Structures are given as structure tokens and as C-alpha cells.
User: Fold these one by one.
Assistant:
Number 1:
Amino acid sequence: MADQLIRATAADGGIRAVGVITTRLTEEARQRHQLSYVATAALGRTMAAGLLMASSMKRVGSRVNVRVKGDGPLGGILVDAGLDGTVRGYVGNSQIELPPNAKGKLDVGGAVGNGYLYVVRDIGYGYPYSSTVELISGEIGDDVAHYLVTSEQTPSALVLGVFVGATGVTAAGGLLVQVLPKAARDEALVAKLESRVASLSGFTPLLQAGKTLPEIFNDLLGDMGLSIFPESQMLRFHCGCSFDRVLGALKILGEAELQDMIVKDDGAEATCDFCGSVYQANSEHLSQLIMDLQTESSVSG
């Protein structure tokens, strides 16, 4: 199945549901960053969570940054996801591997450790909205659901999953179900929904069983007035880095530092943390930057 996002509502609009399949983009991230099994699961879950969170934003160009900073050996996670369906991200220690946890699953919580979840929502104008909550498990899904309840006051259930086999990622994605204010007062409805979500054995087993997102929605909300939006949104791993941006960053270093790079290294190399792309700037590129700085200085003077 292609990577995609599908939205739905239920209970006369009182329940909002969003599902994502992120198998291919998670595999691309694994290959780009040469991720271990547990690092793949951690980053894959966080990218799916970022896309689910960004899906509720309204303005074109809106993005959400999700940063997980724990004291575990993974060294942190940073994900940038957009309303447009693009996502990118990386982890601090891509090679860390741990034994399975007590449930026999990849120990993402142990890799992340104790710490904080930072969320920044950029709606495209004004100051971005930021919030911080303490991690409650390090397993990502629990932590993001905790953030949605405490910081955005929206009762939410979040199921995330990444299955990594010997050949790579074979299933990844997630499901976000939120009870909106108009339905939050219906305690029986909320209890029923909580029970349904709790009964799920996970998200990747559903994908591996051949379930589509509409089928998953129907199993969960089919008797609650489910309405699935007809259009699906394609998702992809995408980074906006470029050679021109790298040159812009190098220019900020100033003439003396650029000249030192020419003398000592005959150029400069920069690697994008988000996507792993490597950019080479030779001495001619750096000399041109120095000339640009000198021109700008003479004009402003």
C-alpha cells in the first residue's frame, strides 16, 4: 500500500479519526540514516505521530516539529512534519541497539529513557506555538497522547507501529482518534471508544493482515455513524535542503573562517542531519562567498 493519510469523523462529528500508512517513508529514513532496529522504530513512530498531529492544522504551509529528548542511549529524536504530507527526521544515535523489552518488542522506551517531549506548531505566520510535557513512557505513542490531553485539552488515543524485518521496514503507520468537545460529555461514548482502542493489538499487525485504513476505521467506528472522507493524501519523506542553502549557511561564518577553510581544507563539506545528504563546496565556491561578502560590505559602507 502507498504511504497515505485518510481522515474520518463519527458520532455526528464528535469524534475525529486520522490514519496514516508510513511504511515506505520510514524505510527511506532507515536507509538514509543507516538506522538500527530500535532507532528505526523510534524515528518511524515519531514521524507517523508528527504527520497525524500536522493533519489538524488549517493554513497551507503549516508544520509541526516534534522533539523527544530523553536520557537514554538513543540521544533524542527530531521530526519535522507538514500539513502537505511531507516529513523528515533523525535520531541522535542511529546505531544503538537494545535487547527486546519484557513484551518481546523493540525497546523504544529504554532507548529514549526519561525526559521531555517538545512540540512546536508553526501555522505560517506570527510566533509558533510551543509546548513541553514530561515523557511518561518513552514509547512515543503514550507520550504524544499525553501531550494532546494536557497541552491541547483534547482526549486522544494514539496507536503507532513500526515493524522492521531482516529486509527492512515492512509495515509502519498509526491511528489518532480524538473526542471533540461536543462529544466529550457523553461518558458512555467515551468509554466505548476507549475500550475499542484498548482492544487493538497494535497497528502494524492490522497492516500485515491486509487491512486498509478504511477497513480499520470501520472496525473501530463503524457503528458510531462513521463518515470517511473520500480523498486520501499521499505522504513522503522530503527534505528541503539544497546546495544554495548550504552556501548561505557557510556565508554566515564570515571572511576569516571561509579563508581558513580554503587554506586548510581546500573547501568544506556539510551533511544535512535530517536527510543525510552530503554537500561539497570547493575553494572556488568559498572564494565566491568571500567576494560576495566584500561586495556587500563596500555597498553598505
Number 2:
Amino acid sequence: MRRKRVPAAPLPQRDGIDPVRLRLPEDPEGTWPTVGAYLLGRYGAAVGAERIGAMLDAGRFVGADGRAAAGPEPYEPGRWLWFHRDLAPEERVPFEVGVVYRDERIVVADKPHFLATTPRGRHVRETAVARLRAGLGLPALQPAHRLDRLTAGLVLFVVRPEDRGAYQLLFKERRVRKEYEALAPYDPGVGLPLTVRSRIEKERGVLAAREVPGEPNAVSRIELVERLGAHARYRLLPETGRTHQLRVHMNALGLPILDDPLYPVVREDGPEDHRRPLRLLARTLEFADPFSGGARRFESRLALSDPA
């Protein structure tokens, strides 16, 4: 049985953020006699019954036809509703998102340190995708891959939804050459270049990933670029894309990336110091374009400041 197509959202984006979409589930037990009863049951514990009532009174839950849903309306399984969440205030990341390249299919952006790629957790408005959507007037813009919030550098975004799968497949099938730059301690006892292979696991709710015994699922090539006194500049070439892979591998070599708040020791939660970013930069992206077949190469315009 073919699934019904999801209707277009009747609400526009707000600050580059899509409205929340929900579909009323089947209710064979008759638990929810009205739309209001369902919304209260689903969201009341999180935001409070008074808030749900106020949102309904204000017409903030909207159906596919653009009409506001009223609380007393009979419950209708399968009905689509959209609404905008009340977002908590976010501290602005004091760096701009640069655009390295743009055409009708893709945008290649230079994401600054501390800015998330996409909404997650407490970072919603302060994300690269939200800023770019609003700034470039591209409401359908989506990333083809992710870059850690603390890492700066190149992120490939796709302009049209119908093109996104082709670019995502490049990353899934490891057909994108990614080159990173890092600043870390210098140790003449670590023979470079070398390729690190290990198994990395990241548990949900645990900040740091860890290496565990087993079949390797993470592969990184580490090269020394130049010595900078007690520190050095490194070229990092990941063959796989595990969470925190480069940070874990550098730490395992005894070369933790400078100003890393997780490796080797998890720093206590507190205000972020924007003057001391993680010294890790996604420097280069190279791939064959899935539509034209032409070679693409992009290089970040950002730079890592030399350690003091």
C-alpha cells in the first residue's frame, strides 16, 4: 500500500526554521475525543496545559488547508497539523557563515566554530542552515552532510530537495575526499605519516566517543605539515566518518587537538570561550559532481590561528 504524500506546509519558515509537522495517529480506544485532548496529551507535560490552550486560542496549530485547528474539533486520525515551537533564547555565535561557492544546485559554506550545522538540542536558530536559508532566501536549503558544531570549515548544502539524495550518496559511498587541518602538540616520537584504524563507539547521552576492541570502523591518515615550536600543524584525511573520529584518533596518538573540550578530558559545562575554538578546520572538499560528472574542488577561506 502506497503511503499518502505529505501535504506542503501551510506555514512559512520563521528565522529559517521549519514549522513542526505532526500527523494525528490512529486512536482505536477513543482516547482523544478532540484535537485539543490529543495536543494536551502529547505536549502538555512538556510545556503545560495553559500554554497548549493559549496556542490553540491563538490559532497556532494549522491544518493542511491553512485553517487554524480549534481545540473542541472532533479528533480525526490521519489529519496533518503544523505549528511553530516557542524557542528558548540562544546566545548568538559571533561569527558569520561565509559562502565559498553557489549555483542553482549547491551552496558550499564556510561554517564557523561553535555554530551547529542543523538544529539539534538547544541549538536551533543558531545553526548554519537557518542562517543561510534566511540570508540567501533559500527556504528549501539542506545540508548534504554534517560537520561537528565545534569544527569550522566547509559544508555542502543542496538548494533543491530533489537533488539532495544524489549529493548525500557521495558522502555515504565515501566518494568525497575530505581534508582537515589541525593544530596539536608536536611529538617527535610519533612517526608520521601514518594511518590509524580503530573501532569507535559513541553512546547516546555520553559526550565523548571512545575506542573499543573489535573490527575497525574508523580510518584516518595523519600527516605532519609543519612544526610550530612545541606544537605542529597537521593534515588529517579521514576515510570514514565516525562521530569525533579525528579528535579521537589524534588523542589516541598523544596529540590531542588544541582547545578540545572533550579529549583527553571532558571539560566542565560552562560558558564557551569564543576566543579559544577547537583548532580543527575542514579545509578541502573534492568530488565528481553527480549531475555534470565534472570535478569539484573547494577550499576553505578560514584559517587556524597559530598557538601562542
